[in-house]
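Case study 2.
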Amino acid sequence: EGDARPASGGLPQSATPAELAALEAMATEGPWRVGGQDLKLTNLDKVLFPGREGAPEPLTKRDLIRWYATAAPLMLPYLAERAVNMRRYPNGVDKAGFWHKAVPSHAPDWITTWRYPDARPDDTAQTYIVVDSVPTLAWLANYGAVELNPWTSPTARWTEPSWALIDLDPGSKTTFDDIVVLARLH
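Prediction:
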């Protein structure tokens, strides 16, 4: 079945054609079995990415779930063994989103989690989701997690980042050429 375990040492698997067909055949909500796990999907026709002039048709929550389930071989190597901070847009990306770090109380028990050893008692997030499978990706998409921001360090060595990210946030007066210059300098 479609899960995150590498096939013969290769890339993680994506959802199978049969699993994707079941997703397409589903009404606006219901149970979906993917990667050996049962998920309860909701509001599948909710628009998360509205259409714009010159852009494709609006994209729904079903589209995001399908994308995560099929892009898993590309996504999971960068997410596996790392805590993830989510930027959720449950009402669509044209509405205000918010950061969500802690594992929600209603998360399925099969989702891999990690307790941050350096968390203070008053920290809002002490336990994080570790994205290591197609079912977890699909569950996060159903949860409205449009942005997945993995920690730069693996959970086993949380004080030792294994890669660095440079985030270039242009201001309202910044041109694309300005960003290109900054990117080249970095």
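The beta strands are 30-34, 37-41, 47-49, 59-60, 83-88, 98-100, 113-115, 127-130, 145-150.
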